[in-house]
Amino acid sequence: MKKYATSSANKTVRSFIIKSVVTSVLSLFVLTYLFSFITYKLDIDLDFNNIFSIFIVAICSAVTSFISVKSMKNNGAFMGILSCILLLLFSLINTIVNNNSFVLFLIKAAIILLTGALFGILATKKSNKFKVK
Fold this sequence. Notes:
Layout: H1 7-41, H2 49-69, H3 76-83, H4 85-98, H5 102-123
Helix pairs in contact: 1-2, 2-3, 2-5, 3-5, 4-5
């Protein structure tokens, strides 16, 4: 029975996990800092923080799924959603700790899943093969 080498598959999975974690954390920190700086400098009311958090989560989900899935060849939507699991976990913890409404969490979760799937599809390498006769 022939043995198959799985070292390349393990390397791909490891790099996908590292990319998704690093880009999630970095984009979340950068965008949170940016929106808090804008809120502070423009003296925006704190009631708008829920709206800003939706924007932050949507942009982070798009960036994370696009960068993580860029090296994949297929299953873009599924891999895009998988890359955004950390953002879903962060939003759930944020909802529990800050006593935010559960409806806001559901909105964030839907946006995370949709943008993750969409940008995952956009990022996959789909090589179109043209046959010239």
